[in-house]
Amino acid sequence: MQITITRPDDWHLHLRDGAALAAVLPHSARQFARAIVMPNLRPPVTTVAAAGKYRERILAALPAGLNFEPLMTLYLTDNSPADEILRAAGSDFVKAVKLYPAGATTNSNAGVTDLAKCDAALGEMEKLGLPLLVHGEVADPAIDLFDRENVFIDTVMQPLLARHPALRVVFEHITTKDAAAFVAAAGANVAATITAHHLLYNRNALFVGGLRPHYYCLPVLKREVHRQALIAAATSASGKFFLGTDSAPHARGGKEAACACAGCYTAFAALELYAEAFAAAGALDRFEAFASFNGADFYGLPRNAGTLTLERRSWTMPDELAYADGDRLVPLRAGEAMQWKLIG
Ligand code: NCD
Ligand code: ZN
Asked: Is 246 an active-site residue?
């Protein structure tokens, strides 16, 4: 069995920088025509000038023969000036601004401590139609880790949209039935990305026979009822849900540690993982809209030309991949069976 779809895009991707960038970029570029590139470098990408330089480093790292367009983002801080938003909207390569609540995830220390401090920037984004990409979790250590997305909806997202009703918002990597329902009920200016791992796994995956750090990401995997709601959203006729891998490489040593880094590396076979989730739901006919149409339509960008074909065929995910500086990178599903293969 085969399925052919319009060439897809990845609307949420971590590419890192330097040697790590060179190691992971070919995996994404093989599958995706474009990707929204996250700005959580050290230091974070907070200006259009820095985003432009990062974009050039990405293009320089791209192997010959691969076509790939990095769509850049700015990292919102308490001090992001409205001017910078104006410059971003006027550039042809910055497509969004990313909100990391301070302390919520990897490299988020420079993130926003209080959205009220960003009101001028947010007002400018609302006026200019520049999307805000939201890591939708509160960082308060007193809130149960599994409830942080829910609490974010009530205490941050709702008030944000009440203050800026026309702001274009992508609720990134949603993980709960509550977030899926919130996005479905919100206006056309609110959409969401969903990762392959949140479609394929529930939180049990973290504890199969022992602690499994390669299944640890933020927002963390949730209960089965939530995974099922994400499947329903991704395979629904709504155009509000689209593909965003949140593929987040960390060296093997950073993952297999007493304090393991958050992030799943899915870019090596992202499309194959998503195809498996859609096939299991009996919804392969919805795969193209989710992977190739809905995101482009939301961002107001043209759909891609060209197609990709996947075949139902079993293969084994490598145990590890080459990464920066002699380090190794363990992909999600390492050493385990895969059901779909990209064949052209
Ligand atoms: C991401 C990373 O490693 O940069 N990690 C993750 O678990 N998703 C950061 C993020 O998107 O939260
Ligand atoms: Zn991410």
From this structure: yes
| Full domain range(s) for residue 72 | 2-342
Q: Which atom of ligand 1 is nearest to the CA of 104?
A: 12
User: CA-to-CA distance for 21 and 33, rounded, in angstroms?
Assistant: 17
Domain count, the chain: 1
Looking at residue 262, which CATH number applies to its domain? 3.20.20.140
Alpha helices in 32-155 (DSSP H): 48-61, 82-90, 119-128, 148-152
Q: Are 31 and 310 in contact (CB under 8 A)?
A: no
Q: pTM above 0.90?
A: yes
**CB of 33 closer than 6 A to ligand 1?**
no
Task: Say yes or no: CB of residue 106 within 6 Å of ligand 1.
Answer: yes
pLDDT tens track of the chain, all 344 residues?
999 999 999 999 999 999 999 999 999 999 999 999 999 999 999 999 999 999 999 999 999 999 999 999 999 999 999 999 999 999 999 999 999 999 887 778 889 999 999 999 999 999 999 999 999 999 999 999 999 999 999 999 999 999 999 999 999 999 999 999 999 999 999 999 999 999 999 999 999 999 999 999 999 999 999 999 999 999 999 999 999 999 999 999 999 999 999 999 999 999 999 999 999 999 999 999 999 999 999 999 999 999 999 999 999 999 999 999 999 999 999 999 999 999 99
